[in-house]
Write a structure and sequence with these properties.
A hairpin with a 2-residue loop joins strand 6 and strand 7. The chain has one domain: L,D-transpeptidase catalytic domain-like (Beta Barrel). The strands form 2 sheets. Strands 1, 2, 3, 4, 5, 8, 9, 10 and 11 form a 9-stranded mixed sheet that branches. Strands 6-7 form a two-stranded antiparallel ribbon. The chain has about 190 residues and is mainly beta. Helix content is about 10%, strand content about 35%.
Length: about 190
């Protein structure tokens, strides 16, 4: 197994104080923001499920609610490295390679924190890189939150085991501090 770091529980103490970073995923905007100390550190376009939202086993939907990073996979892998069953296969896929829908570059494995996300870990709900980068910004996944390789690598390096992740249907603006909209940075 390449670069698997795992943790069984989340600490609410640092998050409650506002010091720890938090990830917010907006299904409405197909966007993810990393927020720390009440400020947006980075924003990224994403792709959530083409089947809608929910946490039922076998639904292929993106769960809404509170989760946390329970494992990270892919330390040191090159961009485009294929990850299957949380193991690097040795194959590297270029972005938008025809006929490829592989999980690539990094995996950030989520664990649910409430009843609406209880099945997230068992369903293998990840934030991960995708070979289908042309579909980012649209609902195209099978439940996970997909990102471009360069974006998921950047996010992976900024978060840790236990980082709180909120997935919501609300617009991202609802989670951002209203007094400082000029601080918003979006990865393009």
């Amino acid at each position: 197994m390449i670069g698997l770091i795992c943790f069984g529980g989340a600490s609410g103490t640092a998050r409650a104080s506002g010091l720890a970073p938090e990830i917010v995923v907006s299904v409405a905007d197909q966007e993810l923001a990393l927020i720390a100390r009440g400020k947006v550190v980075q924003r990224f376009p994403v792709s959530t499920s083409k089947f809608g939202t929910g946490d039922a086993v076998g639904s292929y939907r993106t769960p809404l609610g509170e989760t946390f990073v329970s494992a990270k996979v892919g330390d040191g892998l090159p961009s485009g490295a294929v990850i299957k069953n949380r193991n690097a296969t040795g194959e590297i896929v270029k972005a938008n390679a025809p006929g490829r829908d592989a999980i690539v570059s990094r995996v950030i494995w989520l664990r649910g924190m409430d009843g609406t996300t209880a099945n997230a870990r068992d369903r293998c709900i990840y934030i991960h890189g995708t070979a289908e980068e042309q579909r980012i910004g649209r609902r195209a996944s099978f439940g996970c939150v997909r990102m471009r390789s360069k974006d998921v690598i950047a996010l992976y390096n900024l978060v840790h085991i236990g980082t709180h992740v909120r997935i919501s249907e609300k617009p991202l603006q609802d989670f951002l501090p209203p007094e400082e909209p000029s601080l918003l940075a979006r990865a393009d």
